[in-house]
Design goal:
11 helices, binds flavin mononucleotide, Dihydroorotate_DH_1_2, globular, about 325 residues, oxidoreductase, Dihydroorotate_DH_cat, alpha/beta
Length: about 325
């Protein structure tokens, strides 16, 4: 039987399939089921800095309509919901660690380097094997420079690394003006890994009701290619781990990401669609492909087609269709 083990964030994984941060990983029961079906690790549903703050603001807003509330009560209330969510999250880490043997990666979704970084220490104490930081602010402020926008990433990483010895990874978006440079700088600043790329909520427009509504929540099977490009380009330029995510729906797309140089993949949408049992199907299909190709270990082919190692490195950087457009006929 071929050996699927891989190393990610310094953790030894039995195979490259990690269940991505989502509602799929928000309870011990679900995590146990994922492990039983072959998941090599899970990233817990994120605890959201924004969500906590919003919840606190809402409570405060409700209270202002009551004339008998004293200002000290605000201090009390503004702390309580945060502690509640935090306590629940830390309990989930502890209970999950006790219930399964696969690595548990905690996840914080944040919008600043303020206030919450103490939580990283608590997460480490609770027993998490690593911490993934999902940080993104859409750069819509016309008066902020690229540096101002991007320095926050390094500040967050630094602030968290000062609190913990845990491996810390950054889940990033493709929307950066100088992506390769940024990933290199995160790598040099001690990120144990990068997760490329987060999938975002996108607005859509309902043309019948003339209103805004939610775009599609789950990814499609063709959405993996931008990640593939950047995994290939960055593989031999950074030393940190790379996890590929978004639109990875089949054993074929997992194998492609591994060939481009990913250490692991993170799946959410396809597990929502097909259920936990699909992980077992995926690993069996990877086994068959490896046998067919004569690979005994995952490491035998990981990164074999990265930009530096492939026979057509320019293909990773080709963005215009040129001759394809010229010859294209319907
Ligand atoms: C319903 C749903 C909930 C998600 N929640 C989170 C989250 O809490 N934190 C996070 O970092 N990513 C979250 N994600 C993003 C996933 O972790 C994943 O990176 C993204 O969906 C791309 O992978 P996919 O194409 O396999 O879905 C969520 C995705 C979905 C579909």
């Amino acid at each position: 039987m071929p050996n699927l083990s891989t190393s990610y964030l310094g953790l030894e994984l039995k195979n490259p399939i990690i269940v991505a941060s989502s509602g799929l990983t928000d309870s011990v029961e679900k995590i146990k089921e994922l492990e039983e079906n072959g998941a090599a690790a899970v990233v817990l549903k994120s605890i959201f800095e924004e969500e906590i703050v919003m919840e606190m603001d809402e409570q405060m807003l409700n209270m202002t309509s009551r004339p008998y509330i004293y200002p000290e009560t605000f201090d009390y209330m503004s702390n309580e919901p945060e502690e509640d969510l935090v306590r629940k999250y830390l309990r989930l880490i502890k209970e999950a660690k006790a219930a399964v043997s696969i690595p548990i990666i905690a996840s914080i979704n944040c919008v600043s380097s303020q206030k919450w970084t103490y939580l990283a220490r608590e997460i480490e104490k609770a027993g998490a094997d690593a911490l993934e930081i999902n940080f993104f602010v859409l750069p819509t402020d016309l008066n902020r420079s690229v540096d101002e926008n991007e320095n926050i990433y390094y500040e967050v990483l630094k602030a968290v690394k000062e609190q913990v010895a845990l491996p810390v990874s950054l889940k990033i978006s493709p929307y950066h003006s100088n992506l390769a440079h940024m990933v290199k700088k995160l790598d040099d600043s001690g990120a144990a890994g990068v997760v490329m790329f987060n999938r975002f909520y996108s607005p859509d427009i309902d043309i019948h009701n003339l209103s805004l509504n939610t775009g599609q929540v789950l990814s499609g099977a063709d959405d993996f290619k931008n990640t593939l490009r950047w995994v290939g380009i960055l593989r031999d330029r950074v030393k940190c781990s790379i996890a590929a995510t978004t639109g990875i729906h089949s054993s074929e797309s997992i194998i492609k990401q591994l060939l481009a140089g990913a250490d692991a993949v993170q799946l959410a949408s396809i597990i929502y669609k097909e259920g936990a049992g699909y992980i077992d199907t995926l690993t069996k299909e990877i086994y068959s492909w490896m046998e067919e190709q004569g690979f005994e270990n995952l490491r035998d082919f990981q990164g074999k087609l990265s930009q530096d190692k492939s026979n057509d490195p320019a293909a990773f950087e080709r963005v215009q269709f040129m001759k394809h457009f010229r010859n294209f006929v319907m």
